Amino acid sequence: MFDSHHSLLDMSHKTPENEMDLIRDDEFESKSGTDIMEAPSGDDGDPNQRPKKKRYHRHTQHQITEMEAFFKECPHPDDKQRKELGRRLGLEPLQVKFWFQNKRTQMKSQHERHENTQLRNENDKLRAENIRYKEALSNATCPNCGGPAAIGEMSFDEQHLRIENARLREEIDRISGIAAKYVGKPMLSYPHLPPGSSRSLDLGPGNFGPQTGMAAEIYGAADLLRSVSGPTDANKPMIIELAVAAMEELIRMAQTGEPLWIPSTDNSAESLSEEEYVRTFPRGIGPKPLGLKSEASRESAVVIMNHISLVEILMDANQWTSVFSSIVSRAMTIEVLSTGVAGNYNGALQVMTAEFQVPSPLVPTRENYFARYCKQHTDGTWAVVDVSLDNLRPASISRCRRRPSGCLIQELPNGYSKVTWVEHVEVDDRAVHNIYKPLVNSGLAFGARRWVATLDRQCERLASVMANNISAGDVGVISSPEGRKSMLKLAERMVMSFCTGVGASTAHTWTTLSGSGADDVRVMTRKSVDDPGRPPGIVLSAATSFWLPVPPKRVFDFLRDENSRSEWDILSNGGLVQEMAHIANGRDPGNSVSLLRVNSANSSQSNMLILQESCTDSTGSYVIYAPVDIVAMNVVLSGGDPDYVALLPSGFAILPDGPTNLAGGIDPEVGSGGSLLTVAFQILVDSVPTAKLSLGSVATVNSLIKCTVERIKGAVLCEGA
């Protein structure tokens, strides 16, 4: 048996004595490519003496090459990435920051020059067309008498508008025709395309899909995603035209009511009329492939975030993955076809790949290769639409196809926004475990309601992080706004880390183990080396899901309550649990971050600190926790950098076993009012990364998770009896 908590607490960090000597004033620059003037200081300075220039620092070719390569993948590195890049290249993080700022400015200038040239050419064409229209009107003759034609009441502007409308109608027909021609065909038809019209993409080794069985070795997320190449030059015009058509479809799907959307009898949800959809959008991306079923849903909400910030989150793959970490297990921007105009994302178009998950190993993930297009419309509303490009990869068999899906964002006063979300996919969900089928079939597992509920909760959380005061809901040892922000930032990383190991995704740096000894517990392993956010060594992750005949709220309240923790937490050894700090970060009292202290029942053992975040919305709840080092936590509470606190999160995901109506009842045909509970542990089994994993460690983790499950079942069923 091992003690995972004590392994976590051994976190000594050595700081070089000459750390401050690394920063020399004569070599430090404020911005790459600019000179820094130094004014004389003190009484000894000669007022007539000209300011002395500091030495100009030029980056080496190697440094520039490395930063250029990093810029292509991530033009907006965060603090941690800048520190790591600076350490690798021998640069200060501030130097790296300014280089990336200048690079973004340079790219923006180049893009604007290119756009100016295009606009100038377009202006010249319009001017020439204008002249031709005037000449045509002046030379027009009446077909009856042969004399000059009488324009009558119709002005030149009206004539011009009619011509422009006709041109636009032709353009829409042409775009829809191209989309239907190339994208609307089934996969198997692509080998019969004429020579030169192949739409294939190089997928590299392996397939872009989930590993459904136990595998001895898998690709890491970065390697797998990089194996998907960007679109060919021949495909790019078609992607642009497809994105324009998808934007038109999304707006109509979001704004149209009956007969396209059919309200349910209890007004709890809408369903899409597939017949009406085909009539309304006859071309789109083609007919539904055999073996796939349709899922369509629509949901609206008012969220506490301004429209510009929402657009930035959706268009930045890193921010999008962070905010929706419980849904998006991984995402990457493959290629940016347009960065937008006027310094924002209006007109931005990018090709992406993403994997969507439910927090359970029993529900297969859904992978998509798609275009994401952002546009601001004339009424000020922003729209972001996704549309599947899977048919551009004829070598792959898609299990999930994304029809135009996304959201409309309407600006409201006081920093609020109204979001209308549409999810429309075609999917093969036959591999879903039976206990999750009612939830998945209802559309709640991957549908619009889950996206909107998650966004609403995360907007409240972000507003809490940005707050500069300590609210009345905060209690305990937190004494400053800085400490509050650091603790919330640490909890956010803990939640994201938990989500990478709880679902069915095998695309992260985990290796699934065979021979775990239990079919209903998935055990994975990972080696942690040189990662300041995780303890070094071999980590095991174990997860299992099961059904409970108890409402989700009762399970959530039981698991998040520190007073009932000793009933299920084996590793706390029956010690008294005390809440040291509490941060409320949402309207619901269940949305909070806590710092717990476990007072050991054995006087020979030291006390333990546990960081815990609990969150809940109408589609699911989480209780996530991790033991933390006492010294490191004191640094965080004083406003220190939380990125270097080692965490191994464990916890629970609680979902309803079927859809509920507005009155809170359960549909008897698709759910019983019970809960689907996933339990997941991450445990350090050896502090030496090169050590070999013993079967005893796997057996111990299996035993731990099974014992925890039995304790939870016994406690909540006894409580509900």
TrEMBL record:
GO cellular component, one term: nucleus
An example Gene Ontology biological process: cell differentiation
Key words, A-Z: Coiled coil, DNA-binding, Homeobox, Nucleus, Transcription, Transcription regulation
Cell location: Nucleus
Entry keyword annotation includes Transcription: yes
Domain START: 232-464
Bias-annotated ranges (Basic and acidic residues): 1-32
Name of this protein: Homeobox-leucine zipper protein MERISTEM L1
Source organism (scientific name): Forsythia ovata
